[in-house]
Amino acid sequence: MEIMTILKQYAKTKWLARRFSSREQLVKWQEAQVRAMLTRILPASPFYRKRLGTPERWRQMEPIDKKSMMDHFDELNTCGIKKEEAFAIALKAETTRDFTPQLNGVTVGLSSGTSGNRGLFLVGPQEQAKWAGVILAKALPGQLWSTHRIAFFLRANSNLYTAVNRRRIQFSFFDLQIPLDQHLEHLNQYQPTVLVAPASMLRMLATAQRQGKLRISPIKVISVAEVLDPLDQIYIEEVFGQIVHQIYQCTEGLLAASCSHGTLHVNEDLVVVEKEYLDEKKERFFPIITDFSRTTQPIIRYRLNDILTEKRTPCPCGSVFMALESIEGRADDLFVFRHENEARWISVFPDFIRRAVITSSDAIEEYTVRQLSYEQVELALLMKDGEGPSMREQERVRQSLERVIADQQGQLPAIVFAPYELNLGTKKLRRVERMFVLGEQAID
């Protein structure tokens, strides 16, 4: 039965991608899907039943966030699972590195906690099989009957991921907690056709490939779990000779995937995305998502604090699904400075900081920018010669960053330089990061 569900969902996903000829047609279909899903889950979810009333009023519900979902976990999920027991089984899996146990037939997992607190996710067996069908349709190159070997680098494995294992499709999990050198021989023997990893790991694998320690020829490279920095994207594409595709997935769902042209499209065959705009041009927004494919842990009007930028030009693939220019990072990584001559604060988007650095010099190989306080920013650079930046190179980056802050009318901070170090372990790489929590006076 599971294999039939996967095949059915695979075919449905392929068909749906070509079905819609206009946004209006898509939106009408989404509305029907959300209402049908709500009719099924409201009787089993006291949390949503109290807040929604009837399925027709779902867009009027106040958005929720991760804290709300975790605070009301017991009454939100539809299978009677308690937060305490779900955390216990998920934490045990993290400790033992055995991710196969389930709770009442439901897969339980933990988010990585990059936003400061860890979230639980629940996926039922039918949802798991459907997810496998979707991911195969959206991420697998060629046809389903082709032979593929998928190498997947992640912090934690899951029954969700191993659901794609089939006779012609092999899946091998590579644990990010294990040092890279211990993975290289396995990769050389395995010879993956599809390589999936966080951007920082793809960068490290590309370096190993360039050094001759790694000898693989994947036909598709997919970045997951981290912001794909343009500097890393160019390097990875040059080494592997492939477009770097992206899959945007989090605790709250499978939100977007790249098309054959490398454009990141929102999976609007699974989710409705409402936009909470952050700028006057209405380009950047927080997504408020409603996932009509999930019923075990329903996600309805859930506000993410990821900053997304919408793509304004049509994608050559012709899809009516919303296209994204970039995933800039989290709201937590907005840099905040005092206004240069008024009693207020200004924000600088992570993408502005990122581009100020990488456009200042083509000799930059690696970098991080951390805002330590309202008055101080720390830059760490590694140049292509393997050395730190010269005084002249430091000054060029400093001026570029100061220009960006001045353009937003911010008081210029002290910019200090530190040695570049990359000690990730299982932590996600954040090249642009604010290191402190905003005070109340800086929150608009």
From TrEMBL:
It comes from the Bacteria. SUPFAM superfamilies: Acetyl-CoA synthetase-like (SSF56801). Gene3D superfamilies: N-terminal domain of ligase-like. NCBIfam families: aden_form_hyp (TIGR02304). This is Adenylate cyclase.
